[in-house]
Amino acid sequence: MKIILGLAGEIASGKGTIARHIEEKHNGISHRFSTALRDVARRMSLEENRENLQKLSTVFRENFNDDILSMVICRDVEKDMHQIIAIDGVRRMADIKYLKSLEGFKLVYIEANLDNRYHRIIKRKENSDDSQKTYEEFKSDNGREAESQVKDLKNHADFTIDNNGTFAELYERVDEIINGMGK
Length: 183
Prior knowledge:
Mean pLDDT: 91
Strand content: 15-25%
CATH class: Alpha Beta
CATH topology: Rossmann fold
CATH superfamily: P-loop containing nucleotide triphosphate hydrolases
Helix content: 40-55%
Strand order of the largest sheet: 2-3-1-4-5
Structural class: alpha/beta
Distance between the termini: 9 Å
Low-confidence stretches: none
Number of helices: 8
Largest sheet: 5 strands, parallel
Protein backbone atom coordinates (compact mmCIF):
# COMPACT_ATOMS: atom_id res chain seq x y z
CA MET A 1 0.00 0.00 0.00
CA LYS A 2 1.17 3.51 -0.78
CA ILE A 3 1.81 6.12 1.87
CA ILE A 4 0.41 9.42 0.60
CA LEU A 5 0.95 12.48 2.77
CA GLY A 6 -0.99 15.61 1.88
CA LEU A 7 1.03 18.56 3.20
CA ALA A 8 -0.93 21.59 4.36
CA GLY A 9 0.26 24.70 6.14
CA GLU A 10 0.62 28.41 5.77
CA ILE A 11 3.14 30.00 3.41
CA ALA A 12 6.72 28.87 4.18
CA SER A 13 5.68 26.55 7.01
CA GLY A 14 7.92 23.74 5.71
CA LYS A 15 5.83 21.80 3.19
CA GLY A 16 8.53 21.82 0.50
CA THR A 17 11.23 20.90 3.02
CA ILE A 18 9.23 17.87 4.08
CA ALA A 19 8.58 16.90 0.45
CA ARG A 20 12.32 17.03 -0.32
CA HIS A 21 13.07 14.93 2.77
CA ILE A 22 10.58 12.30 1.60
CA GLU A 23 12.24 12.24 -1.82
CA GLU A 24 15.79 12.08 -0.48
CA LYS A 25 15.48 9.80 2.56
CA HIS A 26 12.52 7.63 1.67
CA ASN A 27 12.98 7.35 -2.11
CA GLY A 28 9.60 9.01 -2.51
CA ILE A 29 8.28 11.67 -4.82
CA SER A 30 6.28 14.84 -4.44
CA HIS A 31 3.48 16.32 -6.47
CA ARG A 32 2.76 20.03 -6.05
CA PHE A 33 -0.50 21.85 -6.53
CA SER A 34 1.45 24.75 -7.98
CA THR A 35 3.08 22.68 -10.76
CA ALA A 36 0.13 22.99 -13.15
CA LEU A 37 -0.18 26.70 -12.35
CA ARG A 38 3.54 27.29 -12.96
CA ASP A 39 3.27 25.40 -16.27
CA VAL A 40 0.46 27.72 -17.40
CA ALA A 41 2.31 30.83 -16.19
CA ARG A 42 5.43 29.86 -18.15
CA ARG A 43 3.39 29.05 -21.25
CA MET A 44 1.68 32.45 -21.03
CA SER A 45 4.98 34.26 -20.31
CA LEU A 46 3.68 35.40 -16.94
CA GLU A 47 6.04 36.05 -14.08
CA GLU A 48 5.92 33.18 -11.58
CA ASN A 49 5.06 35.22 -8.52
CA ARG A 50 2.54 34.46 -5.79
CA GLU A 51 -0.03 36.95 -7.11
CA ASN A 52 -0.08 35.50 -10.65
CA LEU A 53 -0.24 31.90 -9.42
CA GLN A 54 -3.13 32.76 -7.12
CA LYS A 55 -4.97 34.50 -9.97
CA LEU A 56 -4.55 31.44 -12.18
CA SER A 57 -5.83 29.20 -9.39
CA THR A 58 -8.88 31.41 -8.97
CA VAL A 59 -9.60 31.41 -12.72
CA PHE A 60 -9.48 27.60 -12.87
CA ARG A 61 -11.62 27.11 -9.78
CA GLU A 62 -14.22 29.74 -10.69
CA ASN A 63 -14.60 28.59 -14.30
CA PHE A 64 -14.40 24.82 -13.85
CA ASN A 65 -14.78 23.57 -10.29
CA ASP A 66 -13.24 24.08 -6.86
CA ASP A 67 -11.43 20.76 -6.89
CA ILE A 68 -9.98 20.84 -10.42
CA LEU A 69 -6.36 20.96 -9.21
CA SER A 70 -6.90 18.13 -6.74
CA MET A 71 -8.40 16.01 -9.56
CA VAL A 72 -5.19 16.51 -11.56
CA ILE A 73 -3.06 15.62 -8.52
CA CYS A 74 -5.17 12.53 -7.80
CA ARG A 75 -4.71 11.22 -11.33
CA ASP A 76 -0.98 11.83 -11.14
CA VAL A 77 -0.71 10.06 -7.77
CA GLU A 78 -2.79 7.08 -8.91
CA LYS A 79 -0.40 6.55 -11.85
CA ASP A 80 2.74 7.08 -9.75
CA MET A 81 4.60 3.87 -8.87
CA HIS A 82 6.42 5.31 -5.82
CA GLN A 83 5.44 3.83 -2.46
CA ILE A 84 5.77 7.10 -0.56
CA ILE A 85 4.26 10.25 -2.05
CA ALA A 86 4.03 13.81 -0.75
CA ILE A 87 1.32 16.12 -2.05
CA ASP A 88 2.66 19.60 -1.45
CA GLY A 89 0.31 22.56 -1.08
CA VAL A 90 -3.10 21.29 0.06
CA ARG A 91 -5.05 24.50 0.71
CA ARG A 92 -8.80 23.90 0.69
CA MET A 93 -11.45 21.59 2.10
CA ALA A 94 -12.39 20.70 -1.49
CA ASP A 95 -8.85 19.36 -1.91
CA ILE A 96 -8.94 16.99 1.04
CA LYS A 97 -12.45 15.73 0.33
CA TYR A 98 -11.23 14.54 -3.05
CA LEU A 99 -7.77 13.36 -1.91
CA LYS A 100 -9.16 11.31 0.97
CA SER A 101 -10.50 8.89 -1.65
CA LEU A 102 -6.88 7.82 -2.29
CA GLU A 103 -6.00 4.68 -0.35
CA GLY A 104 -3.16 5.47 2.05
CA PHE A 105 -3.84 9.24 2.14
CA LYS A 106 -3.24 11.15 5.36
CA LEU A 107 -3.36 14.92 5.85
CA VAL A 108 -0.36 16.45 7.63
CA TYR A 109 -0.64 20.02 8.88
CA ILE A 110 2.64 21.90 9.38
CA GLU A 111 2.68 24.97 11.58
CA ALA A 112 5.34 27.59 12.21
CA ASN A 113 5.20 31.09 13.60
CA LEU A 114 4.98 34.14 11.33
CA ASP A 115 8.53 35.38 11.98
CA ASN A 116 10.11 32.02 11.14
CA ARG A 117 8.02 31.73 8.01
CA TYR A 118 8.96 35.25 6.86
CA HIS A 119 12.68 34.60 7.25
CA ARG A 120 12.34 31.33 5.35
CA ILE A 121 10.50 32.87 2.41
CA ILE A 122 13.00 35.65 1.79
CA LYS A 123 15.85 33.11 1.83
CA ARG A 124 14.30 30.46 -0.43
CA LYS A 125 13.40 32.64 -3.44
CA GLU A 126 10.86 30.14 -4.78
CA ASN A 127 8.81 32.88 -6.45
CA SER A 128 10.29 35.78 -8.34
CA ASP A 129 9.17 38.30 -5.72
CA ASP A 130 10.11 36.39 -2.54
CA SER A 131 13.55 37.86 -1.80
CA GLN A 132 12.29 41.46 -2.03
CA LYS A 133 9.22 40.93 0.13
CA THR A 134 8.76 43.12 3.19
CA TYR A 135 7.31 41.77 6.43
CA GLU A 136 4.10 43.74 5.81
CA GLU A 137 3.76 42.32 2.27
CA PHE A 138 4.29 38.82 3.65
CA LYS A 139 1.57 39.39 6.25
CA SER A 140 -0.71 40.61 3.45
CA ASP A 141 0.05 37.50 1.34
CA ASN A 142 -1.11 35.36 4.27
CA GLY A 143 -4.50 37.09 4.15
CA ARG A 144 -5.20 36.44 0.46
CA GLU A 145 -8.03 34.24 -0.77
CA ALA A 146 -5.75 31.32 -1.62
CA GLU A 147 -4.62 31.17 2.01
CA SER A 148 -8.03 31.72 3.62
CA GLN A 149 -8.91 28.06 4.21
CA VAL A 150 -5.46 26.75 5.12
CA LYS A 151 -5.65 27.31 8.89
CA ASP A 152 -8.92 25.36 9.16
CA LEU A 153 -7.27 22.29 7.61
CA LYS A 154 -5.47 21.77 10.91
CA ASN A 155 -8.84 20.69 12.35
CA HIS A 156 -9.03 17.93 9.73
CA ALA A 157 -5.42 16.78 9.84
CA ASP A 158 -4.41 13.24 10.73
CA PHE A 159 -1.05 14.58 11.97
CA THR A 160 0.25 17.99 13.04
CA ILE A 161 3.91 18.97 12.96
CA ASP A 162 5.35 21.96 14.81
CA ASN A 163 8.11 23.30 12.58
CA ASN A 164 9.59 26.00 14.79
CA GLY A 165 12.63 23.90 15.64
CA THR A 166 15.57 22.41 13.79
CA PHE A 167 15.69 20.43 10.54
CA ALA A 168 16.63 17.36 12.59
CA GLU A 169 13.49 17.71 14.73
CA LEU A 170 11.32 18.18 11.65
CA TYR A 171 12.81 15.16 9.86
CA GLU A 172 12.47 13.01 12.98
CA ARG A 173 8.75 13.79 13.19
CA VAL A 174 8.20 13.05 9.48
CA ASP A 175 10.09 9.76 9.82
CA GLU A 176 7.92 8.82 12.83
CA ILE A 177 4.77 9.39 10.78
CA ILE A 178 6.03 7.36 7.82
CA ASN A 179 7.31 4.53 10.00
CA GLY A 180 4.04 4.49 11.91
CA MET A 181 2.12 4.10 8.65
CA GLY A 182 3.93 0.92 7.81
CA LYS A 183 7.14 1.69 5.94
